[in-house]
Amino acid sequence: MLSGIYMEGRSLFHNLDPRAKLLWALLVLAASIAAQFNGLKSLPVFISTLIALSLSGIGAGLAALLVFNASVFLLVTTLVWAGMYASQGTPLVTIGFFRITDVGLLVASGKFFLIVNPILAFVVFFTTTKPYHISWTLEKMGVPSKLAFSFVIALSLLPGVVRAVRDVTDVQKLRGLSLDKGSLLERLRKHVPVIVPVISRLLSDVWDLSMVLASRCFGVSRKRSYVEEPRWTRRDTVFVLISAAFYLGVVAWAMRP
Amino acid sequence: MIVFEKVSYQYPRGPSAIRDVTLEIKKGEFVGVIGHSGAGKTTMAKLAVGLLKPTKGRVLVEGMDTAKTPVSELARKVGYVYQNPDMMLFASSILEEVSFALRNLGYPESEIEERVLRALRAVDLNKPLSASPHALSFGEKHRLAIACVLAVEPDYIILDEPTTGLDYYRCLLLFEVLRKLHQAGRTVIVITHDLDLLARFSTRVIVLERSTVIGDGKPREVLGDVEFLSEHGFVPTHLLQLARRTGSEDLTPEGVARTVAARLRRQASA
Amino acid sequence: MGNAAVTVRNLWAKYVGSGDWVLRGVNLEVREGEMLFLMGPSGCGKSTLLKVLAGLLPWVIPGTVEGEVLVAGVDVLRYGYKGLAGKVGVVYQNPEVQVVTRSVFEELAMAPENLGLPKEEVRARVESVAKALGLEDYLFKDPQSLSGGEKQLVAIASVLAMRPRVLLLDEPTSMLDHLGTRLVLDLITQLKREYGLTIVAAEHRVEWAVEVADRVAVMSDGAVVLEGSPSEVFSRVEEVQKYGVRPPGVSEVAYNLVRMGFPIRIPVRLSEMEEVLGGG
């Protein structure tokens, strides 16, 4: 899966025009920003991203994984923000001098969704859109050709880095390196024998890659052509209209005092 | 001895990389392992050093079961030199690099510098201990990587495609170093594509194909069997073909020349 | 074979940050349709020479280059790889770095797309190159899942999609196993015979050189020290060895025979050795 975030598939989201998807992800972001002080109003947005995840063929499994990993984050956010709003609203829970009020809880959940919703939305975007089409979309939005295509290129380096980390860790383990013992600082230092060769490998790959790309005339023509151009269909229009109605509705609701 | 007892290894979500392999590598051998990509060579090497544990069967290194022994313990017996030295070198001085394993494995400080110097001598690397590994040439880095493994003085040393990126004469130099190690009593196991080098230096050649061993014997039996090599997709060098053609048992240019000379003399006197 | 496809006159080159010149006064000419092998030990400069010919040094790789270099009619030192615009294709050693995309189709389309060619033209080129190299069944596969040899094939195809006039090869098989090597060598041999491409290859594989090369140039310390047909060059066993190049196995055997007192001509090919053995 890590060899490029894109996953092959035929889901609803895979078949949407990348511009529609990007717009959707940005709408999710906008709605989450608007509702950041009230988790209740951000909840529908969260649910919509979960629906999107399942409509992308990624399924509940990954969603559950992401949410589970986020639970620690949720706990921390709750405590921080609830603490900041401890003086407003009616107290719900009191532990010692620590007070969680209803307002506090709403703000905490709102902030949590502010981070999680857009992340999930962009995960959906990246896993259902080929890097090639992401570059195309960026170019359509006015990003210079070379920069837009750099995206595809950067992603192609990822498998190499993943493999390098695995191989280097193996080799250093054979030299007696144990990464799981010691204090935090010690463990960080112990990672140097892994980090240095991996970075060295990454730099050498980037070097080689820049030569390969130049040999393939990267940047020779100012306007790159794309053989497989996505076509905007009626389905995309419908999707965008529904999304706009929903998310802008949430924004309006959230902005009401 | 390194023993493989009916060993199979299956990648978690993939095909089997090794199927039912049984073999023994005794002390004092110079073994060459050949096979196409994906045949299982690197998997076998990783099984021998304990980086991978067999899904079936067991691997014993000097009687220790690799599934039950920590990797660092096994490292004292079997050294593994990775294909690309840049993947293991990280330190700011040669001393630090070569002594890395020694420190991790708890060797006493008093022994360390001596072992480092011995290891560097064994690979013919005459650079000051304070020199930076990054300033070395590619061939020197290779030898440094070997020194890092040698510092622990393992009885067995496995090299995974050490000839990549080296020209012929540097390969010869490297194999001369390996020969020295072999003569000093170590068991050398080399995974390589270079048939002529194995013909010259090895005492045994193992052929892997699609997860099983399809050939195992003396170099003149395995590498001399040009038809067998071609059938299995290998490209026998012209030297090996000529050796086959002339019936020479010695697969080196000097040896083949002697065989041809004998034949020409017979023809002349006939 | 008529005009010069590659002309190099008094070429000096070095990389930034290095005091020493890597190329010292290289003079070379390659005619159209010719296949020239550059041979020599590591550090002799063959890889650097290819980078200059490809317009990468000093355009992508910083360094200092002086002299005159004309490739496919383009003054490379002045215009760089952009000036070559697809006239020169380069294939590198490492198959892993040469596959950038997630589908073979995208990979083959990349160079023509970078050139800004119209969609139909790009599509036509991808199809014709896939057909020529037998890659039709591979078009929608993920190149990352292919073997090393297959990846090199895809790399060669992506380069051919530019319809180059000159092909530069930097040890294309040194990281491949025997199967992959055979695949790639057969293809290149076929390309030479069928398409009359001018090919300059930096190579170690002497035994392949004697079968396909028109000319061989041995480099040492940044200059060309021996040049000629494979037979002319490799029969000079001692000289070739002195310059760090391994002569063909049969030449080494013959050389040993000569030193033992047999006055034979030194062959470079296996078939020639048969003659020496008297067909007996």
List the helices and strands and how they pair.
The complex is a heterotrimer of chains A (257), B (270) and C (280).
Chain A: H1 18-34, H2 39-55, H3 59-84, E1 91-95, E2 98-101, H4 102-128, H5 131-140, H6 145-174, H7 184-190, H8 192-215, H9 234-255
Antiparallel strand pairs in A: 1-2
Helix pairs in contact in A: 1-4, 1-9, 2-3, 2-4, 2-9, 3-4, 5-6, 6-8
Chain B: E1 2-10, E2 16-25, E3 30-35, H1 41-49, E4 56-61, E5 64-65, H2 71-75, E6 78-81, H3 94-104, H4 109-122, H5 138-150, E7 156-160, H6 168-183, E8 187-191, H7 195-201, E9 204-209, E10 212-217, H8 219-222, H9 226-231, H10 238-246, H11 253-269
Parallel strand pairs in B: 3-8, 3-9, 6-7, 7-8
Antiparallel strand pairs in B: 1-2, 1-4, 4-5, 9-10
Chain C: E1 4-15, E2 23-31, E3 35-39, H1 46-53, E4 63-71, E5 74-75, H2 76-84, E6 88-91, H3 104-114, H4 119-132, H5 148-160, E7 166-170, H6 178-195, E8 198-202, H7 206-212, E9 215-220, E10 223-228, H8 230-234, H9 237-242, H10 249-259, H11 270-276
Parallel strand pairs in C: 3-8, 3-9, 6-7, 7-8
Antiparallel strand pairs in C: 1-2, 1-4, 4-5, 9-10
Describe the structure in your own words.
The complex is a heterotrimer of chains A (257), B (270) and C (280). Chain A has 9 helices and 2 strands; from the N terminus they run H-H-H-E-E-H-H-H-H-H-H. With 257 residues, chain A is mainly alpha-helical. A two-stranded antiparallel ribbon of chain A has the order 1-2. In chain A, a hairpin with a 2-residue loop joins strand 1 (91-95) and strand 2 (98-101). The longest helix of chain A is centred in the middle third of the chain and has 30 residues, at 145-174. Chain A is flat and about 65 Å long. Chain B is of the alpha/beta class and 270 residues long. Chain B has a 6-stranded mixed sheet with strand order 6-7-8-3-9-10, with helices on both faces. In chain B, strands 2-1-4-5 form a 4-stranded antiparallel sheet, with helices on one face. In chain B, helix 3 (94-104) crosses helix 4, helix 4 packs across helix 5 and helix 10 (238-246) runs parallel beside helix 11 (253-269). The longest helix of chain B has 17 residues, at 253-269. Chain B is globular and about 70 Å long. Chain C starts with a strand and ends with a helix. Chain C has a 6-stranded mixed sheet with strand order 6-7-8-3-9-10, sandwiched between helices. Chain C is an alpha/beta fold and 280 residues long. Chain C has a single domain, classed as 3-Layer(aba) Sandwich (Rossmann fold). Chain C has helices at residues 46-53, 76-84, 104-114, 119-132, 148-160, 178-195, 206-212, 230-234, 237-242, 249-259, 270-276, and strands at residues 4-15, 23-31, 35-39, 63-71, 74-75, 88-91, 166-170, 198-202, 215-220, 223-228. The A-B interface holds A 164, 167-168, 170-178, 192-193, 195-197, 200-201, 204 and B 46, 49, 51, 71-72, 75, 79-80, 82, 86-91, 100-101, 103-105, 148.
